[in-house]
Amino acid sequence: MVTKSEAKSIANVSTKPDDFEQVKLLRQQSYRLINSKFPPVSVFDDVADADEFDTLFELQALTNPRLQALAGNLSLLPRTEIPFGIAGCSYAVAPFTHVNPAGSRFSDGRFGVLYLAENVQTAINEVAYHQNRYWSRVPELSYERFVFRALSCEFADVSLSDLTSLSPQHAIYHSEDYTAARALGGNLRLQGSAGVQYNSVRNQGALCWGLFSPKYVTQMVQHAHYEMIWQNGKISAINQIVSCS
Predict the structure, then answer these.
(1) Which residues pair with 210 in a beta bridge?
(2) Which end of the chain has fewer CB atoms at under 10 Å, N or C?
(3) How many distinct structural domains can be found in the chain?
(4) 68 φ, ψ (degrees, to nearest 5)
(5) 69 pLDDT above the threshold of 90
(6) CA distance 16 to 184
(7) CA geometry: angle at 149 spanning 146 and 153, to 5°?
C-alpha cells in the first residue's frame, strides 16, 4: 500500500501535460513481449483504411464467430486512431481492444496503454516480473514452459510527458502499488497527453514508454521468440528459442 509520505508525493505531482517536459520523438525503436498464444488478427492487417476494415470485418464475422473475441472490444478505440496499412497493425491495436480490467501501471483498467521498452532485455524483465507474481499464486504448479513473442516496434512523431526526472523513490515508480501512477496516467490522458516516457522499474537505467494511442506506431513486427521455464516456485530460466531451419 502507499505510505503517508508516498501519498503526499502523489498530491504534489502535477497531472497537467504542460507541467511536465515534453520529449519529442521523431523516430523511436522499441520492443514488447507478448504471449505467443495470442495470434495476430489478420483483418487489421489486410486493409488500408477504416471503411475497408468495417466491410471486411462484417464479411469475415459471418463465417468466423470467434472474430469478435479475437479483435476485442472495438468500441474502446476510435477508427481514426487505428494505424491501418502498417506492418503489424493488429499488434499495435491489441492493448487498446483487449484492456486488462485489473489495470496496469498507468491505467486503472478503463483504457488501454501500449507499453514499450528501449531494448529486448528490458521487455523481458518487465514481463518476467509479472509472470513470476501471477504463477506464484497458482498452487501445485511444479513445472511449466511459457513461450513469448518479442516484437520490434517503431513509433514516430509524438510528444510524450517525460517522467524520467522524477526520483526513483517517487510513488509512481512503486514496485507493486500503482495508485499514484494510475492517477497520473489517467489525468494526463484525459488532458490530451499522447503518453509517457519513464524509467523502467524492472531494469535500472533503461527507458520505457506508455502510449495512450496506437496511431503513432509505424510498424510492429516479430523479432524473436523466448521461453520462460517455471520450476521450483519461480521462473528459473529464460532462453531465446533458436530455429533449427
Answers:
(1) 115, 196
(2) C
(3) 1
(4) -60, -40
(5) no
(6) 9
(7) 150
Spatial CA neighbour of 37 closest among 225, 241, 213: 225
Instruction: Kindly report the pTM of this predicted structure.
Output: 0.90
Query: Does residue 11 lie within any of the structural domains?
Result: no
Q: What's the number of CA atoms in the CB half-sphere (13 Å) around residue 10? A: 20
CA distance 136 to 126: 16
How far apart CA 94 and CA 72 sit, in angstroms, is 7
Supply the range of the domain harboring residue 235. Answer: 21-241
- Judge whether 16 lies within some domain: no
Q: Please compute the mean of the pLDDT values over residues 137-161 and round it to a whole number.
A: 95
Residue 1 lies in a domain: no
Q: Assess whether pLDDT exceeds 70 at residue 12.
A: no
- Other beta carbons within 10 Å of 41: 20
Q: How far apart are CA 180 and CA 160, in angstroms?
A: 18
Residues 167-196, mean pLDDT to the nearest whole number: 96
